Amino acid sequence: MICEKTRTALEHLIPTPDAATAGDGQESGAKGQTPRPNGVIERDYAVHGYHLDAQMACEQLLAAVAILDENEFFLETITGVDWIAENQLELIYDFSRYDFDLCRVVLRTRVDRRNPVVPTITGIYAGANWHERETHDFFGIVFSGHPHLIPLLLPEDADFHPLLKDFKA
Amino acid sequence: MNAPIELRADETFVLNVGPQHPATHGVLRVKMEMHGEYIVNAETVIGYIHRMHEKMGELKTYPQFLMNLSRMDYLGALGYSHAHVLVVEKASGIVVPERAEYIRAIMVELNRIASHLFWFGAFVMDLGGFSPLMYALQDREHILDMLEAVTGSRLTYCYFRFGGLYNDVDDDFIAAARRFVPRMRKSLKKYRRLVTDNVIFRKRLEGIAPLSKEICRKYGASSAVARGSGINFDVRKNEPYSVYPQFDFDIPVYPQGDSLARYMVRMDEIEQSLRIVEQGLDKLPGGPIMPEKKPKLIKPPPGDYYQAVETARGSFGVRLVSDGGKTPYRLKLRSPTYSNMHLFDEACRGMMIMDALAFMGSLDLVIPEIDR
């Protein structure tokens, strides 16, 4: 129910090219594959553990998060993945609902590895504050507009980002 | 001569609670801007025991990482291991024998009771009552003995394997678990008389630190923090996994949202976990505890997998991004207390400091689990 509604709203926001719907559901992560185009994909919950998987440009992120907020999703977590071969950093936002009408939504956006800047969503979800600070710690992604972007888990003078694949201890 | 001290009406000072402070139960620091005894503003500082488990997850192979999960939440470790093995099994398509899944559920529930008992004792101690901790530890000892006999360790278990378990339960364990259930029920009555019905205890908690549904949602709170605010959310029911659909149990929900409601949810949960243990022992099927066919080398196909479970502290999630190699490409651990603690800064404004410390206790914090 809610999944259909959210999917329609997200698809309205992110026009899905035909190639994405025709895709075999494989992740773009594997080496040598071309990055998947933006769009909403419905995933097999039994395999992946979530229902909707939406990839978008980072300009659409705030609008997508606002849609989820309207539909009473809660923020599960925010994290990143370093795709060093493609010279990109991926941001992953997990959302779920306190409801028995289960719908897990994953929002993804990719940014350039040399200049990773995304807008903060702390204006919509106050709880994103720590998650974004943590992602900044680990990947060096800058959340523009974040009220307090200082190291959270790493030491206060840390100038390294340990989850980058080229990090050497 | 002592000069008189002038106090301005708008004067505030900064109080530093922690990182070494008995009320924080670990190395957690809260900077509080105080106006007299009232908190104007608070900033939680975490990360003092950050160990970068997620990087270790990328460097170690799947079986090597099994033991890391129990080093996160040392009170309810099995729930965390459960999420990890479930997500790897889901990704690699390993089928777990039914008996193993039942034993897992029994063990996780026993561990949940042990965790809640320790929290109960420590929480009442935060409020100034010392003896309930001793009673709680006595009961908890029975669980730890049972778990030690089967898993080999008392707190930092490495019991679950991909596909099953390290060790089967024996008749001694089943007999001990059967003896434990009525014993714990009796203790719960004792706790009710000793603590829950105590008027001093209730006055410290009733109406204190009410959390709205909205703040829970914005911060992603789970466990008793959400259920104490009238949100009927438990991953075991909302997103059933393992053999939980086979069990008949209820999710305690209290609508008040105050510290007492969070306390009541956890105390009621002990009874529900006892019910699951009882049913698990009754229904425990025979058979192997490891699958016959299992890949020698765990190499999940490329993809992005997520698994949430309900641990003693709330909704714990593992995100596994695999590139088909023998180590994960990315392993994200979503810890529940991280989100539960985060709302403290906003919720404690305007509270008196002793109420805020009681509120902090009611959140059930385990700091290594926040810091990871």
Give me the number of helical elements of chain B: 15
> Mind telling me which CATH architecture of chain B this is?
Orthogonal Bundle
Mean pLDDT of chain A: 82
The gyration radius over C-alpha positions of chain B equals: 22 Å
Total domains of chain A: 1
Distance between the first and last residues' Cα of chain B: 53 Å
- Assign an overall shape of chain B: globular
Protein chain pair with the most extensive contact, residues per chain: A-B, 42 and 47 residues
Examine the coordinates and then state which fold CATH places here, giving the name of the CATH topology of chain B. Cytochrome-c3 Hydrogenase, chain B
Strand order of the largest sheet of chain B: 1-4-5
Q: Overall mean pLDDT score of chain B?
A: 89
Architecture of chain A in CATH?
A: 2-Layer Sandwich
Proportion of helical residues of chain A: 25-40%
Number of contiguous helices of chain A: 5
User: From the structure provided, what is the oligomeric state, counting identical versus distinct chains?
Assistant: heterodimer
Number of beta-strand segments of chain A: 7
Number of self-contained structural domains of chain B: 1
List keywords for this structure.
A: 169 residues, alpha/beta, Beta Polymerase, domain 2, five-stranded mixed beta sheet, B: alpha+beta, Cytochrome-c3 Hydrogenase, chain B, three-stranded antiparallel beta sheet
In summary, what is this structure?
Chain A is 25% helix and 26% strand. Chain A is of the alpha/beta class and 169 residues long. Chain A has a single domain (2-16, 36-144), classed as 2-Layer Sandwich (Beta Polymerase, domain 2).
